[in-house]
Amino acid sequence: MTVRVRFAPSPTGMFHVGGARSALQNWIYAKQQGGVFVLRIEDTDAARNKPEWTEGILSALDWIGISRGSYEGPYFQSANAGEHRAAAARLYESGRAYYCDCTREDLQARTGSQYQGYDGYHRDRGLGPGPGNALRFRTPDEGATVVVDLIRGEPTFENKLIEDFVIARGDGSPVFLLANVVDDMTMGITHVIRAEEHLPNTPKQQLLWEALGVKPPIWAHVPVVVNEKRQKLSKRRDKVALEAYRDEGYLAGAMRNYLMLLGWAPSGDREIVPWSVIEDEFRLDEVNLSSAFFDEKKLRAFNGEYIRALPVAEFIDACQPWLTGTGTIAPPPWQPEEFDADAFAAVAPLAQTRIAVLSEIVPNVDFLFLASPLIDEAAWTKTMKDGSAELLDDAVAAFEALESWDAESLKSTLEAVGAERGLKLGKTQAPVRVAVTGRTVGLPLFESLEVLGRERTLTRMRAARLRLV
Ligand code: GLU
């Protein structure tokens, strides 16, 4: 039997990191089993779907390494509407489902409770199809539904506790539970690996498989991803969109490595491991049952390590979208013609060790390309104290006299200027840094001044000095 797994996102919003994790788990499982990964877009909720979300899913998957053309699909659930209806009709004809026209109020009046599940009122009343009549599945009165779950063992659900649930609405349209089963069946899915939040659907879905006469798949319900307050990650509250992380400058390699560590760990005391190791070692049945904390700080640290591990040339390439403002990435503050690739290449190794996400490259290097630096006024006020004007005067004079404009000479010169005032280098550099780069933190100062060049450095120092009059 060829293993066939599927990832079945609904295109109702940005692509969630939890979804990306399920996609990767499916992807690896298929690979390990010599199986097939199917992508199905569950687009039947017409009110909430948008084509751009579908495109977002495809491109985000592509980004984390599930590339277009290397899987089966994408299929669109809406294209199978005929099959969904046919299955609903089969279930009705075989007596496994029946029509019901009860409203919520009818049910409440009968049971006296707002919370009571459906009471089976129409089970044997012989109501036929008609406008407004929903189709309900007749769940067995006895026995239990045992779900085989690679992560959870064999969760068992007593059938008498499962209400006769709706499989098609009053307008005849099949609901998610049924459409999802019919698609899995039509696509020959053998293993359903998905988020834990679907576990309550599973006994119902397994009953549908059985009623339609097909052996149910093996399931694997992966625990949810939570924030630091142990709340399920929510798109309203938390940063969950994979696209947002991509645009901020997370590397795909770091992201997918991190996502796979949510609830699982490779052998040894390692977390940052090559993808091939994860593909080898990952075991679905080793995934923890407890919810997994999505720790953005840790992801950031991870990303920094991935950035530092890049060969410089690759780092330079990886920065390009932020240096030019490609696609959904905001353009940098400089004009394209102001950018100088050689100057960037000269400081790139210095930046590479300092940034955790690629978007941070921009504030680190903008001083090199802008005609005048973007002055951070708070940094200015904090740094430019009594004596800064005179210090800048002396530094300008000393720098003007330099024969060689190199980091080493700049450093020893400024050190000497500071020493005359009894200042350590850190204190002496601060006003120079703010004058030249506009900020109090950034790349190593003297290398920066070397790359910026004599004229531009001195012009900025003189301009700052004038502001201090
Ligand atoms: N479309 C469903 C979701 O995004 C998929 C459910 C499933 O994987 O079975 O939650």
Automatic annotation (TrEMBL):
Claim: Nucleotide-binding is one of the keywords in the record: yes
One Pfam family hit: tRNA-synt_1c
EC number, UniProt record: 6.1.1.17
Cofactors: Zn(2+)
Residues at which ATP binds: K235
Catalysis: reaction(s): tRNA(Glu) + L-glutamate + ATP = L-glutamyl-tRNA(Glu) + AMP + diphosphate
Principal location listed in the UniProt entry: cytoplasm
Keywords from the UniProt entry: Aminoacyl-tRNA synthetase, ATP-binding, Cytoplasm, Ligase, Metal-binding, Nucleotide-binding, Protein biosynthesis, Zinc
Short sequence motif named 'HIGH' region, residue ranges: 9-19
Keyword Protease attributed: no
Domain Glutamyl/glutaminyl-tRNA synthetase class Ib catalytic: 3-300
GO molecular function, one term: ligase activity
Domain Aminoacyl-tRNA synthetase class I anticodon-binding: 314-464
Location of this chain's protein in the cell: Cytoplasm
Cofactor binding, note field: Binds 1 zinc ion per subunit.
Binding site for Zn(2+): C100, C102, H122, D124
UniProt short sequence motif 'KMSKS' region, positions renumbered to this chain: 232-236
Classification via PANTHER family: GLUTAMATE--TRNA LIGASE (PTHR43311), GLUTAMATE--TRNA LIGASE, MITOCHONDRIAL-RELATED (PTHR43311:SF2)
Family under the similarity heading: Belongs to the class-I aminoacyl-tRNA synthetase family. Glutamate--tRNA ligase type 1 subfamily.
HAMAP family assigned to the protein according to its UniProt record, in alphabetical order: Glu_tRNA_synth_type1 (MF_00022)
Function (record text): Catalyzes the attachment of glutamate to tRNA(Glu) in a two-step reaction: glutamate is first activated by ATP to form Glu-AMP and then transferred to the acceptor end of tRNA(Glu).
Complexes and interactors: Monomer.
Family annotation (NCBIfam families): gltX_bact (TIGR00464)
Name of the protein in its database record: Glutamate--tRNA ligase
Source species of the chain: Micromonospora noduli
